[in-house]
Every structure is written in C-alpha cells, then in structure tokens.
Amino acid sequence: MLHKKDWENTFDKKVLPPKGMRDFLPNEKKLREDMMTIIRKEYRKNGFNEIETSFIESIKRLENSDGGENTELLFRILRREDNLNLADGEATDLTDLGLRFDLTLPLCRFYSRYQTMLPKIFKSIQIGNVFRAEKPRAGRYNSFIQCDIDIIGDATNMAEIELINTVSRVFIKLGVKGFTIKLNDRRILQALVEYAGFPKEAYMDVILTLDKLDKRGKDGVVEELVAKGFDQQHIDTFMSTLELLEIGGLAKVAELDLSVEGAKNVRDIISVFDSPSNEFAIIYDPTVARGMGYYTGTVFEITYQGIGNSLAGGGRYDQLINRVSNLEMPACGFSIGFERVADLLKSQDCSFKKERRLAVLMACEENRKSLIEDTNLLKENYDVVSIYKQDEDMDAQLQVLKEQGYNYYTSYCDMIKIKPIE
Q1: Fewer beta carbons within 10 angstroms: which end of the chain, N or C?
Q2: 72 lies in the same domain as 120
Q3: Which of 294, 325, 347 is where one domain is finished?
C-alpha cells in the first residue's frame, strides 16, 4: 500500500473534489460515523428529538436573518429559466433560493410552521451539512456538518444550563477532556459598546468585529474599527475596558454597572457547573461575542488547548423566530462544529469501539451456498465478516487487511481455525 505522500503524487488533480469540499476514505468515514453515533445517543439521552430541515431556503429569508457576515457568504441558486430575467444582471434578481449557512434559521422556519404539533417546550436535534462560500483554510470548509441542539419555549437560563450540560457530556464521551466553556452575555457587550461612547446603532458592527479577535488579534480588531470610521477615543475606551473585564471578571462588570441582568445570568450558569470534579473548565470571557447578529442574551463557546478556533458555540436568540414569522418565542441553541472535532480526533489517532472484524479467505473451490450460510453464522459472533479470495502472497494480503481494520482471519477450507492478524 502506498504511503500518503507517495499516493498524493500519483493522482490526477482533475479528480480532486471542488475547493473547500472533501472526500473521506473508509477509516475516516468510520471515525465520523462513530462520532455521530455518540453525539446522537447523548443528545437523545438528554431528551432532545431529531428533526430534519431543508438544505435550501428562500434567499430573502437568508439575507434578512441577521446572520452576521454569513449573509455575505451565501451559495445562491440561479432561478429556473422560466423565472429568469436575463436582461437584469443583479445577483439578487437572478436568484431566489440559497443553501443554508447554519441550522438555526431553518429551525425557526420549521418551528413556525409546525408549532401546533410540537410540545410547549420543544427540544430539537439537527445534524446536517451547511454551506458558506468563504475562502477555504485549515478548519474551514465550504460545506461542513453542524450538530445542533436547541430549546424553544423556555425563557429561563435553565435552557442554557441543559444545553451546556448535554454538550459537555458529549465532549467527554468523545474523549475530548480538559476543554473550556467560555460564557458571555450580549447585554453586557451592548452596555460595553455604549459605555465606550459608540452610538447605539453601531452596536452590532462593533460586536461582529470583536468576534474576529481570535483570528486577527486585538490590533486587527482596532484596525478594522478604525477602517469602519469609528472615533479613535471610543475604540481606545472599548479596548481598555475590555482588558479591565478580562482581569476583573464579573466583579468589574458590576463595578462599571454594565449589565446587572447579564452579569447575574452568567454567574448563575457558572455556579451550576462550579465543581472540582468536572472534567472541563467554565469561565466568564468578556471577549466571546459570536458572529451571528441574532443573539440576544447568553453566548458561549467551547475551546480546546492548541486549537485556534472554537469547537462548539451558541447562545440565546429570543427574537429570531419573531423575525421569521411574527411569533414571539424564546429560544436557545448550542452547535458542535463536527468537522473541527473530527479533525482533532483524527490528529490524535482516536478510535472508538474496537470491532471484531473477520476476513474469510477463499483458498480452494467453495460451494457458494455453504459459504454464504457459514459466514452468516459467523456474523453472530463478529461485528464484520467479509469474504476475500486468498492471494498468493498471503503475508501482504494480511497486512492490507490489518490496515483496513481486520483483526482475525480464517481459510474457508479450514473454518475451525480462526487466527488473529498480527
């Protein structure tokens, strides 16, 4: 079998998937499916129910979602020919549909349609691909899987507590221990923007710029705020106050009277998980902003040592359902960035359940009817039983089977002797 480097030099680059998209070999696909099984099982164990929503949404709904810069990264779908006005070259006139950029907006549309068929407090699971037309780079793809849980109908921070508890348990089950959950509240951030002297209408612009802190650093955030034309004194006050909050925490929030409600909310949530027995840390982080404009209260994300991007994130979005359907309904969600977690586990050579995989080698002329009947019986005791013609170079064949995850083999001419592949 070719080593990875040798293999990469043998293929025609014409057969690569489109930039930002990926294929998965069997071992990697198995890791991903094992991850999915663990995530789904833990989500369901905590009372969440899985739904499925459309990959495609109305372009107007996507554009008006308050989804931050993601609305500038839409994959647009060209109108059908009978509705296409070729005389007008504006992209907004040539498209009426687009691919979803997250799972939250489709959930809000889904809930608005089926609310009478759903419980008063609805706990949902959504696992599926989303699409963003951004420049691909490490940990960022044009198509990627999100694993969302949301609670609709609960205005209390018990929703946040349930979401954090569930997702933290998922990470522990996946073997990602020692992670950190960082919390903030958009009400604190809004008060901070006003405290710094920015006009009220600049709030979202400033917050979405702050969200780039982990990518661009503080100098990059300042540079972008300056480029947007904001007053230098307001920027300086904003950044210096942010540093004070990083040092002083929620006590400094209270001292500056930035948001009593926001500070109490964050403190209450942290207190629930404040235990030395936890396999993770949970802290207040004044720099957590999240890149979506629709968040209204708590925002949170999970970070892990050595990983520059968050592995999961979410928050409260009490006004988004109202934006979709004029229905007043509180909501909160948490999304696992499946691709980043998968990349992390792959880099750690992680594997989950050790399967008993048996290769049945055909070394002589067989009765095919008996062959199938006998291998079906073996499947009662092995997770995988697969039939292969025995090669002349059996040592090389066993090496290939080992790389495919097989740990036992037998000859069909001598089924009694089942041997380990070493």
Answers
A1: C
A2: yes
A3: 347
For residues 409 and 327, membership in a common domain is answered with: no
Check: CB of residue 160 under 8 Å from CB of residue 168.
no
CATH number of the domain enclosing 107: 3.30.930.10
Task: Answer yes or no: do 416 and 313 share one domain.
Answer: no
Query: CB count, 10 Å around CB of 247?
Result: 9
How many other CB atoms sit within 10 Å of the CB of residue 265? 22
The residue behind tokens 């489709």 is: 106
* Cβ-based neighbours of 186, under 8 Å, separated by 6 or more: 207, 262, 289, 295, 296, 297, 298, 299, 315, 316
Which of 326, 347, 368 lies at the terminal end of a domain, its last residue?
347
- CA–CA distance, 145 with 127 (Å, rounded to integer): 7
**232 lies in some domain:** no
Residue 317 belongs to a domain: yes
Domain coverage including residue 141? 25-179+304-347
Per-residue confidence in pLDDT tens, the chain, 422 aa: 455 555 555 556 778 888 888 999 988 999 999 999 999 999 999 999 999 999 999 998 998 888 777 788 889 988 776 655 555 555 556 888 999 999 999 999 999 999 999 999 999 999 999 999 888 777 678 999 999 999 999 999 999 999 999 999 999 999 998 999 999 999 999 999 999 999 989 999 999 999 999 888 999 999 999 999 999 999 999 999 999 999 999 999 999 999 999 999 999 999 999 888 889 999 999 999 998 889 999 999 999 987 878 999 999 999 999 988 889 999 999 999 999 999 999 888 887 778 899 999 987 777 788 888 889 999 999 999 999 998 989 999 999 999 888 999 998 776 668 899 98
The whole-angstrom separation of Cα 246 and Cα 286 is 6
Tokens of 76: 């647009």
Tell me how far apart the alpha carbons of residues 301 and 182 are, in angstroms, rounded to a whole number: 5
> 343 and 361 in one domain?
no
- Contact (CB, 8 A) for 405 and 354: no
Residues 68 and 143 in one domain: yes
Tokens 């930002």 locate to 20
DSSP state of 118: S
Number of independent structural domains in the chain: 2
| This prediction's pTM | 0.87
